Amino acid sequence: MGSSEFDPQSALRRAVDRRSVLKYGAASAGALGASRLARASAQDASPAASPADGPSDFGTGSLEISGDVTIQYWQYELAAKTQLVEELIPEFHEVNPGITVEHVNFPYDDFRQQVAAAVQAGEGPDVLNVYYGWIPAYVQQQFLVPLPQDIFSADVIREAYFPMVQAAEVEGEYYALPTAVRTLALFYNRDILEAAGVEPPSNWEELVEVAKATVQKEGDNFEVVGFTWDVGGQGHNWWREALNRQNGQIPYTDDRRELLWTEPECIEAFNYATSFIMEHGVTQAGFQTDGATAFAAGKAALHIDGSYRLGSLAIDAPDLNFGVVPLPEHKEKASFASFWANGITRNAAEGDKLIAASKWIDFLSSAEVQRRWTAAIGELPARQALANDPALLENEKLVAFIESLPYSYATFFVNESTLRQAVIDAFDQVVLNGVDAETAVAEAEAQVQEELDEYFAQFD
Amino acid sequence: MSLSLQRRRWLWGYAFIAIPLFFFLFVRIGPTIYAFWMSLHQWDPIALDRPFIGLENFRSMADDETFWKSLRNTWIYVGVGVPAGLIISLLIALGLQRMIRFTGFYRVLYFLPYITSLVAVGWVWRWMYMPNGLFNDILGWVGLGPYKWLGSPDMAIYSIIATTVWHGLGFQVVIFLAGLESIPEDYLAAASVDGASGWQKFRDIVVPQLNPTLVFLIVTGVISNLQVFTQIRAMSSGGTGGPLDSTISIVLYVYQEAFQSLPSKMGYASAMTVVLFLMILAITIFQLKVLQRDTE
């Protein structure tokens, strides 16, 4: 365990704090408290997490359930992920014989419908693997309950995990914990760059230069774009969390309640992004339908994408000769991050189910499982202490993503789809309709701000 | 207790329609009524309470720019797509009717797109519409373009209509052929004897005789264009409604608000489906009353 890791002993001492009594009702807090106190006295002299407890960093090994319990764990279908979880469940069961984890999968495209349909029918998951951007909405709907603070202390999470994980925090409480995270970096086509005699770019100016040097046109038609234009893909994230911050402006206030998109630095960053089309003419929208397809087809020199793209490129374009570098920086370094995280739903809000769910989440986010997860799935560890793992750094294509972890930020979405659409529309207004950036961005900001105001009104 | 013959027949009749009736009540009509009910609520399937808000959902449509855009677009799909499809398929049917050889082959050729999955069709056309795709390549040879097609807020909707027309052509051609075959030869022969020109025969005999066929194709064409969804979703990146919502239809917007938005605005989406339902109902009644008339 790293120095910043959690001390389970102190959690045990905080067992019956008033907060949890209020939150989960007297019965559940009593159950949690009693079992903890029993263990606490027995364990005072011994090291907290014995190996027999299995992977656990939040000390849930000491919590006991009163009888056998079954919890449903839902996650979307991705072969690598479902396979690993299938392997992990028996290991978890071995150290927690009283807990049965039912693993339910469904296609990603149906995610929200499936969850909604199940919940409306009075069923659904106890532990849900959820895209972090949907957490605020699920919190508003009181579908996710806070992770028990006496186990998953917010301070500990803030310290042990990379800063992006704070996007899973709403009004001071964590609602989900990731096993792994993803960041954005710049993919470059080695062959195209070599043919043009240029090196991968590391700052804004170089990005323009390399894109200009590598673009290939025949008349008005592009043969190869210097840099992919994919606002609907990662482009909107790139502007929001990377370009703005790189230009010295965090795009919202510290409490995340107010957008600062119309600050001059953000407008400047926006204009920098559109200059690739409007000024330099090195790219176009819809080329090869989308950026990832263009890059996989070897028809794009530079492309911004997430670490998960490595996996699909290995399958779709095994012969593509490419490398990955961190996003070109400007005044500062910054990148966008995203993650899937495990949260507890209101189905498991109390009693044995809450304990079982907590144990399962503790297990899934333990350092040991994170290490295996990274190896098997190619996502990056969420815990800071694991980022320097030499085994991880062996994969040269992963290095750029790992390097970006400390300065990668996840957007706090109140409604992911409308925010995304608002930013896409702002770019389209400028690029297609010749509207000036201030007007287009102000319109998007007003639209999203209205939703933020509505959302935060519930806490005031 | 013995039943009279009359009553027994009556019972048997109801027994036979019981299952279809059940199906219609619970699978078709039930959900429709339920949607009316949902449209009066702030309905989110995951939320704990779904407050009754009266006509608020309908009122908020008035200020919703995207709703108006989707409404306008839907009428473009109908107003441009239906006539274009009818004219082109009638021309093809007239041509095919005159063919002597390989008629079967040509009919199969025109019918093939119709049995192809609309998602696959959408994706193939999306590739042809790409900035560096087939259409721009061909137009480039004669010095035209390049055009943005699906990437342009002005052209995108017509690009999708072209795909829809192409996809539905085979069905309409076959129906027209059946209609043409059923026009008695005598009428045309008599007109020829009277010295009618080809155009006169077409205008005064063929078109009136095709009236039932036309009504059928217009009604089905209007309904399917009012419900257009799949091709828009397949042909725009990320399943959005095209650049600046220039291709979004009512049904796509309903889908986005109900299933893609989180938190889900299912009540609002239901309200929009109610509006769509009333539109389709009104148009269909109008078409059946006005267009359907007996030919002499």
What do these coordinates show?
The complex is a heterodimer of chains A (460) and B (296). Chain A has 460 residues and is an alpha/beta fold. Chain A has two domains: 8-182 and 338-396, Periplasmic binding protein-like II (D-Maltodextrin-Binding Protein, domain 2); 183-335 and 414-457, Periplasmic binding protein-like II (D-Maltodextrin-Binding Protein, domain 2, 3-Layer(aba) Sandwich), CATH 3.40.190. Chain A is 46% helix and 17% strand. Chain A contains 18 helices and 14 strands. In chain A, strands 1, 2, 3, 4, 7, 8, 9, 10, 11, 12, 13 and 14 form a twelve-stranded mixed β-sheet that branches. In chain A, a hairpin with a 2-residue loop joins strand 5 (169-170) and strand 6. Residues 1-52 of chain A have low confidence and may be disordered. In chain B, 71% of the residues lie in helices and 0% in strands. Chain B has a single domain (63-291), classed as MetI-like fold, CATH 1.10.3720.10. Chain B has 13 helices and no strands. Chain B has helices spanning 5-38, 56-62, 65-98, 103-111, 118-129, 134-141, 156-181, 185-193, 198-209, 211-226, 230-235, 250-260, 266-291. The A-B interface holds A 112-113, 115-117, 119-120, 134, 137-138, 140-143, 219-223, 232-233, 284-290, 415-418, 421, 424-425, 428-429, 432-433 and B 44-48, 126-127, 130-132, 136, 140, 145-146, 148, 150-153, 237-238, 240, 243-245, 256, 259-264.
- Biggest β-sheet of chain B, characterized? none
CATH topology of the largest domain in chain A: D-Maltodextrin-Binding Protein, domain 2
Strand-residue fraction of chain A? Answer: 15-25%
The biggest chain-chain interface is:
A-B, 39 and 32 residues
CATH homology superfamily name of chain B? MetI-like
Q: State the share of residues found in helices of chain B, binned by percent.
A: over 70%
Radius of gyration of chain B: 24 Å
Helix count of chain A equals 18
Q: How far from one another are the termini of chain B? A: 55 Å
Radius of gyration of chain A: 23 Å
Strand portion of chain B, in percent?
under 5%
**Whole-number total of structural domains of chain B:** 1
